[in-house]
Structures are given as structure tokens and as C-alpha cells.
Amino acid sequence: MSLPAVHRDASLPDRVTIYEVGARDGLQNESGVIPLETKLELVQRLTAAGLPIVEATSFVHPKWVPQLADAGDLVARLDLHGATPYPVLVPNERGLDRALDAGVTHVAIFGSATETFAQKNLNSTYEAQFAMFEPVVRRALEAGVQVRAYLSMCFGDPWEGEVAIDRVVAAGKRLLDMGAYELSLGDTIGVGTAHHVEALLDAFTAAGVATDRLAMHFHDTYGQALTNTYAALRKGVTTFDASAGGLGGCPYAKSATGNLATEDLVWMLDGLGIAHGVDLPALAQTSAWIAQHLGRPSPSAVVRALTAG
After folding, report:
1. What sections of 153-300 are H helices per DSSP?
2. Who wins on pLDDT, 149 or 249?
3. Is residue 270 situated within a structural domain?
4. CATH classification at residue 60
């Protein structure tokens, strides 16, 4: 199996953390029901491939995301106190109750930088979402559970168009100020470009938010995910969300196609000499395996190249 030549740029971070979202974000929009055993094996294979964090599922109401109706059963089969964290998404206090009952140690909340997406994704208003999240974060922290925050529509919204940078910063700071340890900035519909990424990160820095509290979550709708990742690396970001094989999208934003493929990210990091701890061949085989279960080729160019023939 070929691997890229390494050319180290000393101005870039020495190491990054890959926050794997394939088992949750990658599968949530699949129309065909995926068996619990397949989901469990996917999580286990991702862990074995060296992913340091594997987001497992979401405790959202099955009415809204039927694919994840087995969240409780899946979490019950995981080692929640091992070396690999298995965060779960919790949309509200009811979701948190289920997560706490299941014994999880890491949860994530999912906010919106825009009014329309808050209404469509959260059945809330932009302002009301913060009131909804506050008791979730407070109770989770009181229970000793770490909280991560996602912020969607940070670069553009399919209904509202371009999203003002100051609005994204204001929304993100409110989530961090609640007590989230990290804020993942989502390019939900993949319209971001490199200088836009730089400008957004500069604005967070100017607002007093250090880059070590920020992560980036890129979608590859227009083929910009890796370019945008490189721009964020140059600004010192060291945590990136990615989905094995490039699976995923957003069920409430039809223009949101697949996430940044973990393999494509790893290939670039390997070429840059940036450590990440992931076994690329094992990961590529895992993505090829889940693609077979889904009945279509992997969207990841690296997976296709490494598993051809």
C-alpha cells in the first residue's frame, strides 16, 4: 500500500486530534436501517484503527432520526470507561437523561448560528436554543460529564445565505461560556473557502477564544474540505472532525453532502509529517467494509485508491 512522501512544515502543528463522527453523523441520514451489530462493529473497527475519539450515536428522539433509534442498545455494548471516549449527541434534557442513565462520560450539544436552521433542526428559535442548552450543560458538568458544542451553519445557510462572522463568534462564545470544553465550527453545507476560514478563526482569536478550544467540521460539497483544513492548520487549529469514508450529511439541510473523509485527512497529515495516531490501511479497509454494507462505493478518494483491486 502506497503512502505519501513526508515533507514537514515546521510552522504547522506537530500533532492533531481527529474527532471521528462516522458512526453518528456518517450514518444518521441513511435511509435503509443499519443493523445494530453492524454499527457496533463499525465503532469497534474505528477504535482499533487508532481513532482517539469515536462519536458513537445520538440520543435524539427516534421520530426525528429513526436510524439512531437503537442508541441505548449500542451504548450499552461499549466500554464507556476505556481509553477511547465515545461521545453521544444530546439535543435537550430528555436526551441528557438517557445519556446519564446509560453512563456516558462525554456528550455533545448541537447549536445553530442562524435562525432558520435553529427552527428546522432544533424546533427552536435562535435565541431559545441557548435557554434549552443551559440546563443540559449545567447538569452534565455537575454529573462529571464533559460537554462539547457543535455550531452549525458557520459559513453559509441554504435559506439565509452567507452568515456574518460576528454572528458566528457571538453564538460560539455563548456555548463556550456555558461550560463546553470545545467548540466545533461546522461548514454544514460546504460553502466555506480558505480565507473565510482564516477570517473566522482570526475573529475568534480577537474575541479572546484560543484556537485550542476550537475544532473544525468541514463538508466537502464543493471539494474545499481539505483546502479549508489546511487553512485552519496554518492558524493553529489542532482538532478536526472527520467521517470514515466521507459518509454523512445533514437530514435537515439537503445541500449538506458528505463530511471530510477521515482517510483523505490522514493522507494529507501524513504528507505534512503531522502525527495523528491513526492506522490508515486499517481505516481504509473499514470504510470499504461499511461501503459494502451500504451498497455503494466510498466517496473517499483515498479509500478508493488504497482498496482498488
Report:
1. 165-178, 194-206, 225-234, 262-272, 280-294
2. 149
3. yes
4. 3.20.20.70
Establish if 5 belongs to a structural domain: no
What are 94-136's pLDDT values in tens digits? 999 999 999 999 999 999 999 999 999 899 999 999 999 999 9
- In terms of phi and psi (left: phi > 0; alpha: psi -120 to 50; beta: otherwise), the region of 144 is left
Give the tens place of pLDDT for each residue, 165-185: 999 999 999 999 999 999 999
Each residue of 27-41: pLDDT tens digit?
998 888 999 999 999
Does residue 217 form part of some domain? yes
Residue 235's SS3 state is coil
Number of domains in the chain: 1
Q: Quick check: is 6 in a domain?
A: no
| 8 Å CB contact between 187 and 217 | yes
Q: Facing residues of 148 across strands?
A: 108, 182
DSSP 130: H
Catalytic pick from 176, 197, 250, 288? 250
Residue 259 identity:
N
Please, what is the Cα angle at 291 between 290 and 296, to 5 degrees?
155
- E strands, the chain, where? 17-20, 53-54, 57-58, 88-89, 106-112, 146-152, 156-157, 161-162, 182-187, 214-218, 239-242
Which residues sit opposite 162 in a β-bridge?
A: 156
All cell numbers assigned to 47 = 477504535
Reference 126, options 140, 135, 114, 136; nearest CA is 114
The size of the chain, in residues, is 309
Longest C-alpha distance within the chain, in Å? 53
Task: Tell me the residue range of the domain where 21 lies.
Answer: 17-307
Catalytic residue flag (residue 154): no
Confidence of residue 257 (pLDDT cuts 50, 70, 90): low
- The mean pLDDT value for 278-287 works out to 97
Helix (H, G, I), strand (E, B) or coil at 109: strand
Q: What are phi and psi of 257, to 5 degrees?
A: -90, -160
